[in-house]
Write a structure and sequence with these properties.
Blueprint lengths: L15 E6 L3 H12 L4 E7 L2 H11 L3 E5 L7 H11 L4 E6 L4 H9 L4 E4 L3 H13 L4 E2 L5 H13 L10 H11 L4 H8 L3 H15 L4 H10 L6
Parallel strand pairs: 1-2, 1-3, 3-4, 4-5, 5-6
Helix pairs in contact: 2-3, 7-9, 7-10, 8-9
């Protein structure tokens, strides 16, 4: 797709095909109204969880995925990481209820162009979508752009970036534990054994210094894996 370097829509170009994922139907409806009102943006598919978003991206071939961070089954960040692996040309942008600097860094590491708080989506989401399609990182106005610059400079120079406290697989298990699934249900959803689920849970308790399932759930809420 031809991009307009001025930041606005490019007359005559095909609309940007958008996949929208959020587990709240009212939020999806509102975001869709914002995006579909622009001549250069078109929502072509909707999902209410990260796993379905990944599946729909394969069938609808969107140009851009707008993903809520906190969703069932698979978070937006997990979906963004999977999409970066299977569809590297797809641009992604995160939506969140939370104004959290760490989410922005996690979004960049997941391959996303940045994130937009839902509280300012009506003001900034369209600009964020266009920035993402131009290959530019987006952080909503008001936050220090030096954070982006420093992060990208470290990434491009090969300097180590902050480690994630848990692995991607552990994060998948953690999210499902916090959602109340049993070890057997988690094993079935992730196509692993119950023993492997229990090992991942034990590893997380040890690494994070936590005691039980309740502590894991609280940690999942603090890190945005599930909503309180």
């Amino acid at each position: 797709m031809d991009a307009d370097t001025t930041g606005g829509p490019n007359p005559g170009a095909a609309p940007i095909r958008v996949l929208l994922a959020d587990d709240h139907a009212l939020v999806r409806r509102g975001v869709r109204l914002i995006l579909d009102s622009e001549p250069d943006l078109e929502v072509v598919a909707e999902a209410d969880n990260g796993a379905d978003a990944v599946a729909l991206a394969r069938t609808h071939e969107p140009d851009l995925a707008v993903l809520d961070i906190a969703m069932p089954r698979m978070t937006g960040l997990q979906a963004a990481r999977e999409l970066a692996r299977v569809q590297p040309g797809l641009r992604t942008l995160m939506l969140t209820m939370y104004d959290n600097e760490q989410f922005f860094f996690e979004a960049l590491k997941a391959g996303a162009s940045g994130y937009v708080p839902k509280s300012v989506a009506d003001r900034d989401l369209v600009d964020a979508c266009r920035a993402a399609m131009r290959g530019e990182p987006f952080l909503y106005p008001g936050t220090m752009t030096t954070l982006i610059r420093n992060y990208l400079e470290r990434a491009h120079s090969g300097e180590p970036l902050p480690d994630r406290p848990v692995t991607e697989r552990e994060e998948e298990v953690l999210k499902l534990v916090a959602e109340g699934h049993t070890s057997k249900e988690i094993a079935d959803l992730l196509y692993i054994s119950v023993k492997t689920v229990e090992r991942h849970r034990a590893n997380m308790l040890q690494k994070l210094g936590l005691r039980d399932r309740l502590d894991l759930t609280r940690y999942a809420i603090r890190t945005g894996l599930i909503e309180p």
